[in-house]
Write a structure and sequence with these properties.
This protein is an all-alpha fold. About 60% of the residues lie in helices and about 0% in strands. The termini are far apart.
Length: about 60
């Protein structure tokens, strides 16, 4: 589940940022406590359609 969420968030980042600061894998995050407010926000954004994401953050890469 974390992989799906992170994949949605990093797909538009420049590859140099993704490679410099790699996201934690399942083995590093299995015992890590995630604050409920953060996990709820991330899950909400992860299931949101892409068009709504652009409206939510008031930006679009083609603008």
């Amino acid at each position: 589940m974390f992989k799906e969420i992170f994949t949605r968030f990093i797909r538009h980042l420049p590859s140099r940022l993704v490679h410099r600061d790699p996201l934690p894998g399942a083995q590093q995050t299995v015992n890590t406590a995630v604050p409920p407010s953060l996990s709820a926000h991330c899950l909400k954004m992860a299931v949101m359609p892409e068009e709504e994401l652009w409206k939510t953050f008031d930006t679009h890469p083609e603008d």
